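Hi everyone, sorry if this is the wrong subforum. Our group has a chain we'd like a structural model of before ordering constructs, and none of us has done structure prediction before. Sequence below.
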Amino acid sequence: HEVFIETGAGLQAHFSDRSYVDAGAELVDSPEALYSQCNLIVKVGPPVGEELGYLQEKQILISALHLGGTTPDFLMRLMELGITGIGFEFIRDPDGTLPIVRMMHEIMGSMAVQVAARYLESDEGGKGVMLGGISGVPPSTVVIIGAGVVGEWAARTAVAYGAHVIVLDTDLSALRQVEHFLDRRITTAMANEQYLRQAIQSADVVIGAAMSDGQRAPLLVTEDMVRAMKPGSVIVDAVIDQGGCIETSKPTTHSEPTYRMYDVIHYCVPNMPSNAARTATYALTNVIVPYLIQIGEAGSINEALWRNAGLRNGAYVYRRHLTKKSLATMFGMPHRDIELLIASGI
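Answer:
Right subforum, don't worry. Here is the predicted structure as tokens:
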């Protein structure tokens, strides 16, 4: 197989162009040139802006879909070109795990707490407190909304800092599980309005980690709840890629990562793992390369999808059809079952 990579693609993760050449890749000067000569495009985020014009008919696109920013126009563009789109968020192995999502969410959960600790400091306009207490001074309170993988790893990191950690979720079994993993070193509560309001009002940090696989994140924290938070508190909405679970959240950028609302610092940067680019590169490589090799060895994307349930689950557009029911429901669009499409040869 021939592998092409854009010049400079690895620099911010401290991988030189030379390291890719030594591994057998061929450097390409621009995204346009890369799209023009590759059958399979692999990237972290979905194509945006000019990139949409670079897409070629019947290409295979593997990337995160970022449900919070997905539009019907984007999906229609892919379908018009007959592109096979496979989303990180949907790749589910036969054992029920979402391998790429889990890997990225472990990073997101840990980073959310690191970010919050920084923005609590006086230099960043925060309350000027530490997450962990010291002798005679109690620790900060970290409230985590959601007990999935992001919430679990946020809780692990916050506990390691020495913070007082409260985890809320609408799923009692998820709360039991995270409590078991952390040996009851956290407080758990059902995410009903009463408990949410009480916890958030007492919080120094709120981590938004509530999400549903393959769907938009549920909106659990209202603007009124945020308004009642203490001045200088910090919100990190770690699921902003899926639309966010806090009403006052809106996507920010790495160059301007925060804004203040009701004197609460909001950090809502999509694709948080890119701030730990080297760690994220290794993590993503470990999970995604086996799928790429399977696609190459299968000889065609049709055969690869038929053989591999994880890839088949990951496909959201295929042969000019939308194949994800959750996306069809979200946008009021028709969809077709991918197994029937493959079997029928449509």
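For your construct planning: The chain has a mean pLDDT of 92. Residues 226 and 255 are 24 Å apart (CA to CA).
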